Records
---
Amino acid sequence: MARLLIVEDEPALRRALSINLKARGYEVLAADCGTAALKLAGAGALDLAIVDLGLPDLDGVEVIAGLRGWSQVPIIVLSARDGQAEKVRALDAGADDYVTKPFGMDELLARIRAAIRRSDHADTGGAVVTTDSFSIDLAAKRATKAGVEVRLTPTEWLLVEALLRHRGALVPSSQLLTEVWGNGYEKETNYLRVYFAQLRRKLEDKPSQPRYFVTEPGLGYRFES
Ligand code: CA
């Protein structure tokens, strides 16, 4: 049975979606805000997330970015008719598809089936990364080294997430800077030097000879696990 997460703050729509999806044999988790959604998503593997972009606490795009910190789960966005720019931002943040409100249930069901087909169950619950030296739980935002909790700053978490999204791959410096600090910071490579030095001091056994947070000189960084 596929497990779906619905993030929608309008009670009537949330209820209608839950009823319809359950009637079609899906297991449904429902959240009325972004914070609750990220908590539910961190608690277990999902097959698909449906995210309304207009939420009371977080922007739906932040919810998508949060999910993408550790998960490749297919994400379908619900957006208002006039929300073109919003849609583009959602897709850029990692959403797979969108449905414009108001929508027909049949249309949404077809999109859900297609997205699940495409995903080949890529969400393997990879929220926890464990190495010989430390363990990082991206969903719970908890890092431990030798059983002791290591406190990371919000910026350090963003950087770790951005790197772990592409585990094993070279992530260009400009991409890390844009994902963590935003547009206009592409050339601030000294930020990366400072923050990676901090991360290595906190997590690596030999910070001066990093084994996990590896620099590719002149190119970017790589997480080796
Ligand atoms: Ca809404």
---
Amino acid sequence: MAEITILTHIAELATPLGKAARRGKDMNEIRILHDAAVVIQDGIITDVGDTAGILSRARTSRAAIRDLSGHALVPGFVDSHTHFLFGGFRPEEFMLRLQGASYLEIHKSGGGIENTVRSTRAETAEQMLRDGKERLSDALSMGVTSMEGKSGYGLDKTTELTMLQVMRQLNQIQPVEVTPTYLGGHSIPAEYKGRADEYISFMITSMLPLIKEQKLAAFVDIFCEDGVFTAKQSETLLRAASSLGFGTKIHADEIMSTGGAELAARVPCTSADHLLMISEQGIRDLASSAAIATLLPCTAFCLAKPYAPARKLIDAGCAVSLASDYNPGSCYTNSIPLLFALAVIHMGMTLPETLTALTLNGAAAIGRADKIGSIEPGKQADLVVLKQPSYTFLVYNTAKNQVIEVIKKGKSVYKI
Ligand code: NIG
Ligand code: FE
């Protein structure tokens, strides 16, 4: 028999609508209902409306009814860009940056990503699984119900495969859904120093077919940056990935403008991420392409760099998503409350745009906007209950976690 739950008397329900990313000014159009109700059947939303209307038409005799008066409800957050699996930490680099060292200087001198590669290669799969589970549980407590996770701290065959396999295992043992991305193109491994083209060939011939065959990743990503991979090398990898049926992503124009956004529009990639230094041409190209502009304000904050031009991107008609970029180097935080604060207070995004960016557009950035990212019939019931009666508290109660309950596929999976 079907399992039916009805959430009633929701003080404020706030959600974007649709099964695809919302672009430009449509990002600001969200649905807000008061005294709302949501009907969930077997983990799927089947009806949404005002409480009186829903109760008069729902088959309430078989349903579990829950009163959410006094609380707002929003869709589960989708963190569409993270590096949440890693070994070791790099606090000494953070301290060096505070004293003026730059991220790229540290990277070029063998610290940075290479530093984490060394500690990740030394980890066991069990350790990685334990840490991963703990980090996902922490994300869940801030309302994250789906998360993208990148490999990229192994670079060699064994560790890259282990990272992707651990993500698969995590999907079986805890509620946050993880979408795995192969980021072998995160850095040129020490054993390929000076031979970046050969490393690109190795990924194309030895890694992509294997990962495809074992269905270990949905996306392929590369760090296109001065001193890392060139736009040409990135294009070679991403086109090969795309022809094998992978979705594609690119770390683009994070520290220098190297044509990453233009490339993302040309491929086209599912998303172009970072974009702190995007060119005017890059903005125009992304606006007229299907690629989503994924902005990572916590990274700009931690690196003390200017934020990506969110306002310009949205005004040009782009689809913008927001994500944490959680990693041990450039951004050792996955704070959703901080992300809301930075987007609204420092990037000039409206609160409805920010909500859209972190839900529906985040879902689109991982190819799942048909199933998650909004509260409407047909979508998976991934929902976040807030302490206060309005979603405006997500930014008004600055950088404080508002989440008191998380519902995943219709089931309460976190509650305080
Ligand atoms: O998105 N820029 C490349 N990758 C990460 C940083 C990874 C690291 O420093 O460990 C980022 O910022
Ligand atoms: Fe990243």
